[in-house]
Amino acid sequence: MRAGPAGRERRVVPVPVPVPVARGSITVDAAASLNEVFPKLAEGFEAAHPGTAITFNFGGSSTLAASIVSGATVDVFAAASTKTMQTVQDASLTASDPVVVARNELEIAVPPGDPGRITGLADFGDAAKTIVVCDTTVPCGAAATQVFDLARITPKPDSYEPDVTSVLTKVEGNDADAGLVYVTDVKAAGSKVDGIAFPQAKEAVTAYPIAALKGSKNPALADAWVAWVQAHEADLRAAGFLAP
Asked: What pLDDT score does 227 carry?
């Protein structure tokens, strides 16, 4: 304390110490269906945190999880399935409990104008149609299996793709009459595809958990990115994702 006027003591208020801002770079493994919205979120993050850089590796969630468990150097993992994230948790590789930041549901994608005359999910059981779906080992394929079971349809796909992006690419290229992708993929594709909704999709909603990993070389930045994604639910909703 210092003496003030008339002998009164004057309180000295300490100057707050600035909290260090995370800097450097991180690698984020993320489900293929996040390949449109995550880079946009990263632009805002990097602008708000000068001196940072985020590198993405998009792919099938189960493939990414297997790579992480095998020792891949990754800072953050965002999956399209809580079951897939559990694989990484079971290996004790998450730095904290994963948090679900969004949800998604399937939609039928067809080339513009629907040249294959696809009317609904039943067409996926028609061998005369050229159909593509995700491999059953990845979340979009697991969700597809669920909706086919609900609709009592035995699918007759011409190919099983490693991730939802590959399915969408075939539809966009007019190499398939239809494919099962997420609502967000149809939205992101714009005029390149048309979307056809079906009722069973509401019963096979996919959750998207995200978590920083123990092996991160930049844990502060990894945590900051996870917090940023959580804080930008509105951007995820704008991209077509459902609320957590």
From this structure: 96
pLDDT for the residue numbered 23: 87
- Report the distance separating Cα 91 and Cα 70, nearest Å: 10
State the pTM of this model: 0.87
Which domains are present in the chain? 24-102+208-238 (3.40.190.10), 106-203 (3.40.190.10)
* Spans in the chain with pLDDT lower than 70: 1-21
